[in-house]
Amino acid sequence: MQNEKQCKKCQQNLKLNLFKVDSRLKSGYSSTCKQCHASLEAHKKKEGYRKPYKYDPVNGLASSRKWRANNRDKDRAKANRRRCYLKQATPPWADEAKIKEIYKQAAVLNLSVDHIIPLSNKNVCGLNVHQNLQIIPLKDNLQKSNKFDWQES
């Protein structure tokens, strides 16, 4: 086994202990040395590379429409996963007429339907029943995501 590897950034042949372990790669080590990796990360932070997501009502919808148009197969797969997940989270005793009525009301008011207790969360999983639904603005629903606050309930 080789004890050295070439860094893709600085092009130097360095000992393997100067590379991060990365089991996803065939060699088992990252393609850049630790020093180059640290400088890349510092540059990303300095440039504001990873900004937190903020919903932009003007450009947000346009960019998501563009993505959906360019990735129809991924969009359909995502919709199918969501549909299956909702079906799995809906118990047999759920009143589907009331659930549909809530979704219709939200569409008429141009608002979003939110699950009070999220369907998917690391601490809790809610059900798709009318008692667990609320109508809120889309911006608030996107900010809430799948968070659940124990104090509010």
Summarize the structure.
By secondary structure, the chain is an alpha+beta fold.
How would you sum up this structure, described in words?
It is a single chain. The protein has about 150 residues and is α+β, with helices and mostly antiparallel strands. The chain has two domains: about 5-45, no CATH class; about 60-145, no CATH class. Helix content is about 40%, strand content about 15%. A hairpin with a 7-residue loop joins strand 3 (about 20) and strand 4. The longest helix has 18 residues, at about 70-90. The chain is elongated and about 65 Å long. The model has no long low-confidence stretch (mean pLDDT about 85).
Per DSSP E runs of 2 or more residues, the count of β-strands stands at: 6
The helical percent reads 40-55%
Question: Overall pLDDT, averaged?
Answer: 84
β-strand percent reads 5-15%
Computed structural class: alpha+beta
Specify the overall morphology.
elongated
How many domains would you count in the coordinates? Answer: 2
Largest sheet: 2 strands, antiparallel
Give the helix tally.
Answer: 5
Order of helices and strands: EEEEHHHHEEH
Distance between the termini: 58 Å
Strand adjacency order, main sheet: 1-2
Query: Rg to the nearest angstrom?
Result: 23 Å
Taking pLDDT < 50 over at least 5 consecutive residues as the criterion, the unreliable ranges are none
